[in-house]
Structures are given as structure tokens and as C-alpha cells.
Amino acid sequence: MKKFLALISLSIFAAQIVIAGEEKPPAAAPKTKRAPQAAPADAKTQPAPENDSSDSKTKPGEDTAAITVKNKSSFNIEPGTRSPFWPISWKPTGHVAAGAGTDQGEVPPGAFVVTSITLDGATRFAIINGRTMGEGQQFGLQVGTQVYQVGVKRIEDGRVILGRRDEEIVVPLRRK
Considering the entire predicted model, what is its pTM? Predict the structure, then answer.
């Protein structure tokens, strides 16, 4: 039985070699140079130069036309309008400004996001709008073009009490 299987596999292998030897690769098409064409009178209607290299993606004899943009798109958003690129139901929060600014009007509710509170003995820190703040620290909150001066009065377990002028703003810890 082993001799029979060896004979069959040997004959299959030999047949493949014979068939591969009989096939001849197709002959390469000879390259011919084209006669130069007369230059068109208008530069806008001038066709793109033809390539005779093998890297070209166009077939021989095809003319490639230049691509022209007729209408450029643009996107203009009016101030105060919700950006369509924000996720649905997402509202922007205030950004902590580095410098001082004006102090007019009320601070909008929800302008502060407390994501972490650290209580270690006498040292207390909170992450408010992405920045680490300590008790007694003053910072500017920028909402749109308005900048509000806010101070951190107290940091307690689960909430931060902020002060602005003579009002207190209690911001709870945001838990997920």
C-alpha cells in the first residue's frame, strides 16, 4: 500500500513539472514612441503629458484630463450656535483662564466639573475643570469671551465650595 501511494504522489508531482515546462510566458509588447503633438493655443485646455513608464496607472493611448475644482466648500458657524461636531447632548464647560479678566454677571451653573477630590490630613486638593486646585487658590473661569474670578473656599468630602464676590457655589463631585 505504501508503494502505491508513493507512486501516485510521484506521478502527480511529475505531471505538474511537465505542465509548467510547456507553458511559455507571454512576450512583452514592444514600446513605441509617439510622435510629438502640436501645442494647443489655450493653456487651460492643454492635456496632461503622457507617461511611457511602467509605473503609470493609465493605459496606453488614454488621455488624462486635468482636474479643476469648480466650487470650494466652506463651513461658517455663527457665534452662539451649537457646533454640529459636538456629541449629541454634550454641553461645553468653562475653561480655567490663566490671567485675570472682567468680573461681570453670574457664573452659569454647570460651568464647573469636579472630577476628583484628595483629602490627606491638612492638605486638600480637587481637580476642577481639569486643573488641580487647593483651598484658598484663586483662578479665572472663562466662559465664551467672559472671564470670572473664582476662589476655592473649602474642599470637603464629595463636594467643593467655591466663592465669587459674596456668593458661594457648591459643586458636587461628579461620579460615574
Answer: 0.42
